Structure prediction request, 778 residues.
Amino acid sequence: MMRDVAIVGVGMTKFGEHWKKGLRELISEAGIKAVDDAGISGKDIQLIVGGSMSSGIFAGQEHTGALFTDYLGLNPIPAIRTEAACASSSVALSTGVMAIQSGRYNCVVVGGVEKMTDVYGGLATTALAGAMDRDNEAHFGLTFPGVYALMAKRHMHQYGTTREQIAMSAVKNHENAMHNPNAQFHRKITVDDVLKSPLVADPLRLLDCSPIADGAASLIIVPADKAKQYTDTPIYIRASSQASDTLSLYRRSDITTIGATITAAQNAYKQAGMTTKDIHFAEVHDCFTINEIISTEDLGFARKGDGGRLLQSGETMIGGKIPVNTSGGLKAKGHPVGATGAAQVIEAVEQLRGDAGGRQVDGAENGLTHNVGGSGSTVVVHIFSRNRK
Amino acid sequence: MMRDVAIVGVGMTKFGEHWKKGLRELISEAGIKAVDDAGISGKDIQLIVGGSMSSGIFAGQEHTGALFTDYLGLNPIPAIRTEAACASSSVALSTGVMAIQSGRYNCVVVGGVEKMTDVYGGLATTALAGAMDRDNEAHFGLTFPGVYALMAKRHMHQYGTTREQIAMSAVKNHENAMHNPNAQFHRKITVDDVLKSPLVADPLRLLDCSPIADGAASLIIVPADKAKQYTDTPIYIRASSQASDTLSLYRRSDITTIGATITAAQNAYKQAGMTTKDIHFAEVHDCFTINEIISTEDLGFARKGDGGRLLQSGETMIGGKIPVNTSGGLKAKGHPVGATGAAQVIEAVEQLRGDAGGRQVDGAENGLTHNVGGSGSTVVVHIFSRNRK
Prediction:
């Protein structure tokens, strides 16, 4: 019988441009907030699992596990850095869950960090292209806006998804971010704003793209049996599921879907003993607007091809049937790649605690996070609940 | 009660300059050899945990977990990339052990890879410097030969360790590598050769330094209960232990010792219920010759300060009391950083199976591996045995 795992503390930095903060300051700020939130001290922590995607290129710093331990004052406990492109800190969480389930650890810090702004522009694109197939894609000039533009074009062609529907993801997420103090952008936009923004990779425009950002996010996880020692409102991890697909997009039979999302989600629903009907909100990986549409389909919230229409119906807005990206999503909350997965989880925890303020989903009992690495080569889905079973 | 874990298959590439092989080819070669050795098929594998240190800088490729899964033909199973500088694949093993212990997985591929040669020289030094404290060390010009040169100078000053004793590590390890077909160098050297080789960072010379290399190594691990289904000679993981210390060298109170080695080793002996007397051979992290001396002390094979004298006594040679780096060590087997930890484990497995040929330690029942990240910010110690208890 595997141990159940619960989250008893969370903390994150604001996402955005932090010109006076490096990896150390970001990690420390998020980590200390999480420790304070859990009401624990450093002595309670037995392991750190921290995700970052490309700290080597962005900041000249690998070995970020040891950096976490050192700058949180936790030596000599062990640290694991996980990397799975933009899903790095969701993999950190699933690894942390295994660590608790192994019986070796009873209190684990899981986190993620990325410091992306302090490089010249071309280097950021180069670093991020490390998430795709370098030899067969990036080497020939493909960029990530290009990857998702290919998916968007095909989705529009195959399912009649409109340019306007795609834009509505960004509009909704900017609206949601107005209520999230940790979001990078606090500025409402319109469909017209998206359609008039500069073209990046046809059909995607600037306001279809999540921004470069700095940030860190941390969680404290413990065995569910011990969670009430820490807090009256533990949030239980009901499913932790990960799947892989080809590193390159061109080797997939259908680029209007991300197969690893389907695999990871089906396994997650099974683990949790839930269906899509039991999920009250979802944080999905809108690195580009089109991916919110594709993901709501692959997660089962819309039939294949109907993601654009679901978005247009308003049912993914707060107050709708299945609110998506209440945090502002990657688009408006920001996307410091290694921190994104952990920050999605923090949104789930705040919603389930009833602490989400102006973006609260009424009566939320269960929520889902969906984090994609690259073009879908790695996908991690977690399901969280106020209830242990 | 935690599950015991056993190794039932191993495979590695030759270490060295592989000008016609990239990450994909290296991973595939090592992975397929390990799968063949275990007599399993891809369908049996449920998880990959793969270490690499700086594939982003060396090869423009992050997301190497997905690369592993993809190029071993194992989609959609999950993959975790671990990174802890030169200890990346030992952290992969400890993470894989947790994965088995969690009860979620019954057959895991653990591996490591690094492709280091196909970059211009300065970039390799830059990449490797990501293992130290970028902001406070590398930024001011410190390199890794410099880090270990500081440790060597102080060790010589404090304990009377001689330049000749330090050289003897390289001489022994080149001798051992003569019997290892996977080693990068098959060339005997003398103390005089070391002392006359070009000065790199005083007192360390070229032949004190482990080489840049390409390579990959893989292991198949399963619950000990199921190991005999796969092989008549499973090798049991009796201890898996990791510790952290400051990222930067200058913040340590004593640079003649690596505190994280002491912590990790003491914990490992306790886990295994063994003392140094029970260990019949050790693979230790000789990234630079001086570190073999420091490590044999910190692991308890010599009293503090006596590591040079232990080496000079011949007791760490094959046939001695405690053979060290029978594989040739990082110095002569080669040091493709992300693959090194897994390759140390392969040496332990071959010794314990009695398959080590001309470098076999007679009657070896238990062996230890010791893998260091950076200047000792991460240390992982594993103990292996022919016997389950």
